[in-house]
Predict the 3D structure of the following.
Amino acid sequence: PEPDPVVELLLGGDLGDEQAGEVMTADLVSVGTGETIVAAGRRMAEAGVRHLPVRDGDAFVQQPAGIVAE
């Protein structure tokens, strides 16, 4: 499952000095622009994530094409 810094803050956690790289999901799960929403939803459920980067092509070159969110 993906880390949730917002929940951590709501529970009283102190993330003031945390860097994005410390709370990011390291094993990135993504979907291509040509995949169906059903396939994207299935991938999210299998990976236990609520956000799914959408890539245009085989890899992220400069930035993802977008994000699918729960």
Summary: Helices lie at 5-10, 20-23, 37-47. The beta strands are 31-32, 51-55, 66-69. The radius of gyration is 14 Å. Residues 37-47 form the longest helix (11 residues).
